[in-house]
């Protein structure tokens, strides 16, 4: 509350309500630091990071990948003979991506549903549309060179794919009537001033998936599905959805 009224970091100014969540996180970090010698915080939030980095004993990183790559973390992983096994699993997955793609296809649709697409080409006031239905993903690519091990038998793997989606947005009626007929989207009446428009877009989706591995079972004498749980593949993050270039 003191920080709220005087505007101390991570609050950007006095009585900034939007910064209250950061302030609670910051106080929680200080509490945790009281019980440990060193605290690593992974955060892309500028104000929170600026506040945390001023405290002795706190190291601020912008991504989980940066944390994993720290020498102390890599040493701990290497001590458990994990990295060699992880590298072997990644190599096996890269040699047979189809099984991974099938698992991915069953997950990605639900994750993009109701996500927003932003583009200056969308004639909505905010230049955005909301995904309301989707087709099967195509041209699925996994970036095995950027795969990362997050511990506890979990591998993170960046992906990219194409998908045809239907998305809705709100179109000013006068703008609709000024369009060429062949460019007009399908519309229904929303209110006196706007139509609800629905249009198909081909989008590029980027993100990451998590793959669970039983490292105790990893062996070059076994098939990959004996130690990789393809049924548990999950979309870890949808980082970006953008309209594909024609």
Question: What can you tell me about this protein's structure?
Answer:
Strands 3, 4, 5, 6, 7, 8, 9 and 10 form an 8-stranded antiparallel sheet that branches. The longest helix has 16 residues, at 97-112. It contains 8 helices and 10 strands. The mean pLDDT is 86. 31% of the residues lie in helices and 31% in strands. The protein has 246 residues and is α+β, with helices and mostly antiparallel strands. The radius of gyration is 23 Å and the shape is flat.
What characteristics describe this protein?
single chain, 246 residues, alpha+beta, 2 domains, two-stranded parallel ribbon, 31% strand
Order of helices and strands: HHEHEHHHHEEEEEHEEE
Radius of gyration: 23 Å
- β-strand number: 10
What is the helix tally?
A: 8
Mean pLDDT level: 86
**Helix/strand/pairing category:** alpha+beta
Counting copies of identical and different chains, the oligomeric state is: single chain
% residues in beta strands: 25-35%
The helicity comes to 25-40%
- Our count of domains comes out at 2
Please sum up the structure shown.
This protein is of the alpha+beta class and 246 residues long.
Topology (SSEs and partners):
Blueprint: H1 2-6, H2 20-33, E1 39-42, H3 46-52, E2 58-61, H4 64-68, H5 71-79, H6 82-95, H7 97-112, E3 116-118, E4 128-134, E5 138-142, E6 148-149, E7 154-172, H8 173-178, E8 186-189, E9 194-212, E10 234-243
Parallel strand pairs: 1-2
Antiparallel strand pairs: 3-4, 4-7, 5-7, 6-7, 7-9, 8-9, 9-10
């Amino acid at each position: 509350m003191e920080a709220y009224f005087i505007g101390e970091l991570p609050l950007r100014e006095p009585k900034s309500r939007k910064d209250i969540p950061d302030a609670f996180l910051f106080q929680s970090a200080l509490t945790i630091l009281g019980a440990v010698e060193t605290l690593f915080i992974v955060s892309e939030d500028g104000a929170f990071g600026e506040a945390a980095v001023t405290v002795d004993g706190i190291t601020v990183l912008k991504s989980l990948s940066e944390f994993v790559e720290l020498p102390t973390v890599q040493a701990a992983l290497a001590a458990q003979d994990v990295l060699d096994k992880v590298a072997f699993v990644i190599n096996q997955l890269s040699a047979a991506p189809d099984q991974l793609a099938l698992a991915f296809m069953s997950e990605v649709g639900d994750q993009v549903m109701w996500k927003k697409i932003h583009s200056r080409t969308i004639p909505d006031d905010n230049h955005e549309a909301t995904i309301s239905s989707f087709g099967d993903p195509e041209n699925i690519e996994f970036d095995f060179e950027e795969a990362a091990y997050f511990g506890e038998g979990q591998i993170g793997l960046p992906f990219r794919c194409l998908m045809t989606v239907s998305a809705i947005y709100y179109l000013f009626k006068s703008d609709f009537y000024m369009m060429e007929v062949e460019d007009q989207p399908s519309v229904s009446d929303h209110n006196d001033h706007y139509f609800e428009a629905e249009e198909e877009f081909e989008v590029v989706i980027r993100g990451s998936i998590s793959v669970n591995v039983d490292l105790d079972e990893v062996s070059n004498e076994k098939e990959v599905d004996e130690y990789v749980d393809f049924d548990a593949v999950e979309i870890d993050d949808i980082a970006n959805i953008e309209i594909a270039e024609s």
